[in-house]
Design goal:
single chain; 3 helices; Alpha-Beta Plaits; alpha+beta
Length: 104
């Protein structure tokens, strides 16, 4: 069964557009990673000047995700321009899940 890794970001609403643009322009280096399935950046509603975003990646297995976190591809994907001060409200929060059921 697949494995899901999600990073939760709390972004200042006045910088939400810039946050999304950073993701659009970012090289993820995921396309050639073994057992990577797909990626989505999700935007939630704005509440009290904060927009909740989730980076959602699907992997063939937990081991595939862990292997990626120890790879050169991971290092390259996370290298680059630092996030501008004030864009994020707190640190990203990682949540990971084993898929236990997929509906038809």
């Amino acid at each position: 069964m697949p494995y899901i890794a999600m990073n939760n970001f709390q972004v200042s609403a006045d910088q939400a557009e810039q946050f999304e643009e950073r993701w659009r322009k970012r090289r993820s280096f995921l396309q050639d990673v073994p057992e990577f399935e797909h990626f989505q950046l999700l935007r939630g509603d704005e509440q009290e000047g904060i927009v909740h975003y989730v980076s959602h990646s699907t992997w063939a297995s937990k081991d595939a995700f862990i292997d990626w976190t120890h790879s050169d591809s991971f290092v390259q994907a996370h290298r680059g321009d630092p996030i501008p001060k004030g864009m994020l409200q707190g640190h990203p929060q990682l949540e990971c899940f084993d898929v236990v059921h997929i509906a038809d």
